[in-house]
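> forwarded from #structure-qc
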């Protein structure tokens, strides 16, 4: 049956066996059978309302419930009878019983009979019996898990009746709400994500716990179809989401600290998603929700102890946890739902000093002697707000050291006197509280009990109306610090009720008198006891007369509290009987008039509280009755005072403390208003309408040490002289919240050499620095100043030397201004500064030069909400943050304005960027790149011919490849087709054709004939000149270079020469040079390629056409020898490189 639902129509079942009915019920059943016809059947209508279901124990297969039952049935034996004829104990007890109940606590049982006429004439009368009762108990029921997640649990109440025959039992069940199935389906789906988590992935406590939970659900699903009955994980029923998230909260509060970024790195994405989901949902979990472990038992978190204190309050506990550390000294189990406590609940807690069990539902059966057998050292026990209305004898036998016992606010009260044996072991009890327990009188113990050791007794809110003579006999000889009788309805007080008390320091009668006339009885009752304090707050007192307190004539009262009454005036010396009175509290009355004799005879009065009344004007007669008194402190705030006349305080020569704040004073103070208060040290004029000060305003109060002028509408000080010039002893001055913008007197604070604290926040003092050519140095002369609050003033800059004279300043508050820069000399002189607040300004940069005066003394610095530019200019400050021990509030939230959104702690300036220091790799680049370039140029220079040759050759090969490749020329060897390729200028063509070629192609007999490659004959039409040149050089063993002035001037000849020279220098000696005409060396130097060859190798010089025949023959022989000479390897590759470099 579900919580808060009704079930109707239950009827008896004849199938129940005899042995299922308890023995007491059987005896009554047999008794009723004799008085009723055998065939008569009775139909009983049952209404069952389940108020609460909790403490579901799946292991024991039982649950606890709070149930309201009502029964109605027609009872034939009551017909034609009256109510007086029916005896309750004969017919109703017991009529029904609950078969599956393990333990029941029955309460609020009500029986009734209604008679209804059945005939037309109203007769006979049919009797219907009504029975209603409330049960709170434990019930046993089979808990099954079938077809998860579509299963449901049935928590049954099996109600049986003591009748012989039964009809049928109709059962009704409340089906699950659709949301319950949705929750269980979601949990089932989540459970299978467990299997996707790697075995080594959950490496922290939270993920391991989640994995175990979800695995358990999957296990339940697997075995539900195999086992007929298994323990049910009730935390997955109805409130699954809340309880899962509560586990997250438990580990956050009681487990090891969890850092979410660390979790994300330790877990894979499955675990991270699960943990994040639980953490998000955890914020919505109820703080009182129960926490369950996998085996269904409660995990209270009560194993966590801090400084000997274990806090188990506000956890919805149903029983005392079993995991409480033995070393606990303070145990708080308050604000739970504990109903029963086993006697061994606190076994082993021998160090316990304070035990709080208040605000539970503990019954009297749980408070037994053995419960405290190990608590002999207990000093404080709180049992208030429970249901303990009776105590067993010697219940506190083991609590001999108990000092505080609170039994207040018991739900059922303690109407009967407490037995003497209950308090007899409490020899150390000094504080006893019995508030709101329905006491019939203040004598709450049996006769003969003496609680002489008591110091405080609270009996408030008991609605007692009479104080008898012996009501406090148990306090015989006691010294009571406080007796609290407040919130009662006292109408009669016996004059001897306090006679046995040796000393009564304080008597609290707040809201305790039914009528103001009872005040006289109070005075009579305290005449025989030494009393110091009397509180008569909120007793409805409207007026004071000369006889109001006449019965207090012999009292020793020193403090009288009459606050929160409705007194309208004081006159005719109503307090004349309190000769020793030192403190009078008249706070929050309606006093508008104080007569000339109001406080006569109060020579010992030290403190007078007239705050929160209706006084409008203070004149010279208002306090004249206090002339010669010892009045030291007077409170006049929260009145309606609008003016103070001259001489209003002239009789208060001993006054040192005066509060006039929160009034309506609108006045120009010249000085005589404060005459007579030469000893005044504290004056509060704050929060008034408008006050203006003359230069002599405080001439009469030269001993002032603290002056408060905040929120008084003083927007400027135009006086030529400082109004504080007489206050040389002033230590604290408050001028805040005045919107002050003008200070004409430049030396306004100069006389205040002893001033230590200055409050000028919430003003407009930026005008005195910005709107004048020479900024006003209004802080000069404050050599003793230790704290200055200059916040909320709109300062955009600080003039140089402003704080130069403030050598002792320790706290400087400059928050909520418009400061953008702080020049180095602004803070000069602040060598003792400990705390500096600069938050909510417009600062971009903080330099070392600005902070240098106090870097060694600073302990706290506030800089949040400033638009810092996180660049190189902030380099020193950012590094200083890392190195300093100074406390910087909200540093983790402080952001940069540029780059926007970047945290100040995430900014770290690089020394390579800010200090002009090059990074190491810059040196590598600067040095290495030029060296690399030089080396590459060097290699390219050395190999320039090889590179050119191969580039040209490669280009020619690509073109030849496109035409189908090379074709062999018949008649020559495979490597060369020609013996010699002649490279010459076209202008020298006649000499080549007419002289050179005939000698080589058609020699005389006996000389070798050579195949000549002439570009005029062998160059292929359609190919580029470059390709023809390369091909001609490659196909010839030798290249014959006809060197002349014309040759040197021809670009193509020079190109042919370069290609041939590369082959000559690179691989083989294939170049033969003929110097045709007289080419000077100066001209050859301009052509370094051929000049280099002619320097290293021998060349032939044509002797000329006019030379002798012998010379010409010698020339031709040398030429034929050079052309015919076989090619030899010139040098290795390294040698070629060297030759090319020369």
């Amino acid at each position: 049956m579900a919580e808060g639902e009704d079930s109707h129509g239950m009827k008896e079942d004849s199938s129940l066996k005899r042995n299922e009915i308890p023995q007491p019920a059987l005896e009554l059943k047999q008794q009723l059978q004799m008085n009723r016809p055998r065939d008569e059947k009775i139909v009983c209508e049952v209404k069952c309302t389940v108020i609460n279901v909790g403490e579901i124990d799946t292991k024991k297969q039982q649950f606890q419930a709070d149930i309201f039952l009502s029964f109605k049935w027609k009872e034939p034996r009551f017909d034609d009878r009256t109510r007086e004829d029916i005896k309750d104990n004969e017919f109703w007890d017991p009529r029904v019983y609950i078969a599956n109940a393990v333990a029941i606590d029955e309460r609020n049982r009500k029986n009734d009979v209604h008679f209804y006429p059945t005939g037309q004439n109203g007769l006979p009368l049919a009797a219907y019996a009504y029975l209603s009762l409330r049960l709170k108990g434990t019930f046993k029921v089979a808990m099954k898990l079938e077809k998860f997640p579509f299963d449901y649990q049935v928590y049954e109440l099996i109600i049986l009746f003591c009748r012989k025959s039964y009809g049928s039992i109709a059962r009704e069940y409340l089906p699950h709400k659709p949301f319950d199935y949705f929750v269980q389906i979601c949990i089932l789906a989540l459970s299978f994500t467990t299997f996707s988590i790697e075995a080594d992935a959950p490496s922290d406590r939270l993920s391991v716990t989640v994995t175990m939970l979800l695995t358990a659900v999957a296990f339940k699903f697997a075995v539900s179809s195999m086992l007929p009955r298994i323990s049910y994980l009730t935390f997955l029923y109805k409130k699954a989401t809340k309880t899962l998230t509560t586990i997250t909260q438990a580990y956050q509060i009681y487990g090891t600290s969890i850092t979410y970024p660390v979790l994300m790195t330790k877990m894979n994405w499955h675990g991270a998603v699960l943990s994040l989901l639980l953490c998000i949902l955890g914020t919505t979990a109820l703080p009182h929700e129960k926490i369950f472990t996998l085996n269904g038992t409660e995990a209270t978190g009560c194993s966590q102890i801090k400084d000997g204190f274990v806090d188990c309050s506000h956890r919805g506990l149903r029983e005392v946890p079993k995991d409480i550390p033995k070393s606990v000294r303070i145990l708080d189990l308050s604000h739970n739902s504990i109903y029963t406590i086993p006697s061994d609940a606190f076994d082993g807690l021998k160090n316990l000093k304070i035990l709080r069990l208040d605000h539970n539902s503990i019954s009297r059966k749980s408070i037994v002697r053995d419960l405290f057998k190990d608590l002999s050292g207990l000093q404080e026990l709180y049992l208030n707000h429970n249901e303990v209305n009776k105590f067993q004898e010697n219940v506190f036998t083991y609590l001999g050291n108990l000092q505080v016992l609170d039994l207040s606010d018991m739900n059922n009260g303690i109407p009967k006197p407490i037995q003497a044996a209950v308090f007899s072991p409490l020899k150390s009890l000094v504080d006893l509280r019995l508030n709101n327990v329905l006491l019939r009188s203040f004598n709450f113990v049996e006769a003969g009990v003496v609680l002489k050791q008591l110091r405080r007794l609270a009996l408030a809110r008991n609605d007692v109306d009479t104080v008898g003579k012996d009501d406090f006999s148990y306090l015989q000889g006691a010294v009571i610090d406080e007796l609290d009788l407040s919130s009662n309805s006292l109408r009669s007080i016996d004059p001897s009720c306090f006679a046995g008390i040796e000393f009564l320091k304080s008597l609290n009668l707040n809201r305790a008198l039914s009528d103001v006339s009872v005040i006289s009885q109070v005075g009579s009752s305290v005449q025989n006891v030494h009393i110091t304090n009397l509180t008569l707050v909120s007793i409805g007192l409207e007026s004071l007369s000369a006889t109001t307190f006449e019965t207090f004539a012999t009292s020793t009262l020193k403090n009288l509290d009459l606050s929160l009454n409705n007194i309208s005036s004081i006159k005719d010396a109503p307090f004349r009987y309190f000769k020793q009175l030192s403190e009078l509290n008249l706070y929050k009355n309606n006093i508008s008039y104080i007569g000339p004799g109001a406080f006569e005879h109060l020579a010992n009065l030290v403190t007078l509280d007239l705050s929160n009344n209706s006084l409008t004007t203070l004149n010279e007669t208002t306090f004249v009755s206090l002339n010669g008194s010892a009045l030291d402190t007077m409170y006049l705030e929260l009145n309606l005072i609008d003016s103070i006349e001259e001489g209003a305080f002239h009789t208060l020569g001993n006054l040192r403390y005066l509060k006039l704040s929160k009034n309506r004073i609108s006045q120009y103070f010249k000085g005589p208003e404060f005459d007579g208060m030469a000893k005044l040290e504290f004056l509060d004029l704050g929060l008034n309408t408008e006050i203006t000060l003359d230069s002599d305003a405080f001439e009469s109060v030269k001993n002032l040490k603290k002056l408060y002028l905040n929120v008084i509408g003083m927007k400027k000080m135009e006086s030529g002289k400082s109004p504080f010039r007489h206050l040389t002893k002033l230590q604290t001055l408050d001028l805040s919240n005045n919107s002050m913008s003008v200070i004409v007197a430049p030396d306004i604070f100069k006389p205040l050499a002893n001033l230590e604290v200055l409050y000028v926040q919430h003003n407009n003092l930026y005008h005195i620095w910005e709107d004048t050519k020479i900024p006003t140095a209004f802080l000069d002369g404050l050599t003793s100043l230790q704290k200055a609050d200059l916040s909320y003033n709109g300062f955009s800059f600080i003039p140089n030397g402003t704080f130069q004279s403030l050598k002792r300043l320790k706290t400087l508050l400059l928050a909520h201004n418009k400061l953008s820069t702080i020049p180095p000399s602004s803070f000069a002189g602040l060598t003792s500064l400990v705390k500096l607040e600069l938050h909510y300004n417009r600062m971009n940069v903080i330099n070392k030069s600005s902070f240098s005066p106090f870097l060694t003394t600073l302990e706290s610095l506030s800089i949040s909400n400033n638009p810092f530019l996180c660049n190189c200019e902030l380099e020193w400050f950012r590094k200083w943050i890392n190195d300093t021990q100074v406390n910087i509030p909200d540093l983790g939230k402080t952001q940069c304005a540029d780059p926007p959104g970047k945290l100040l702690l995430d900014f770290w300036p690089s020394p390579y960027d800010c200090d002009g220091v090059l990074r190491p790799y810059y040196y590598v680049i600067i040095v290495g790149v030029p060296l690399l370039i030089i080396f590459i140029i060097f290699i390219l220079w050395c190999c320039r011919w090889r590179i050119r040759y191969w580039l040209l050759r490669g280009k020619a090969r690509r073109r030849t490849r496109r035409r189908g490749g090379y074709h062999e020329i018949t008649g020559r060897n495979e490597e060369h087709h020609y013996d010699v390729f002649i490279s010459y200028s076209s202008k020298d063509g006649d000499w080549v054709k007419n002289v050179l070629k005939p000698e080589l192609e058609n020699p005389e007999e006996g000389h070798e004939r050579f195949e000549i490659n002439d570009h005029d004959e062998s160059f292929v039409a359609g190919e580029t000149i470059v390709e023809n040149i390369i091909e001609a050089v490659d196909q010839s063993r030798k290249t014959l270079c006809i060197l002349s002035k014309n040759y040197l001037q021809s670009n193509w000849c020079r190109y042919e020469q370069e290609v041939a020279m590369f082959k000559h220098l690179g691989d083989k000696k294939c170049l033969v040079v003929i110097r045709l005409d007289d080419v000077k060396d100066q001209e050859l130097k301009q052509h370094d390629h051929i000049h280099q060859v002619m320097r290293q190798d021998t060349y032939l010089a044509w002797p000329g056409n006019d030379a002798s025949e012998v010379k010409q023959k010698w020339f031709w022989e040398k030429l034929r020898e050079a052309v015919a000479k076989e090619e030899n390897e010139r040098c290795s590759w390294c040698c070629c490189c060297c030759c090319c470099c020369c």
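QC bot note: The first helix runs from residue 23 to 33. The mean pLDDT is 78.
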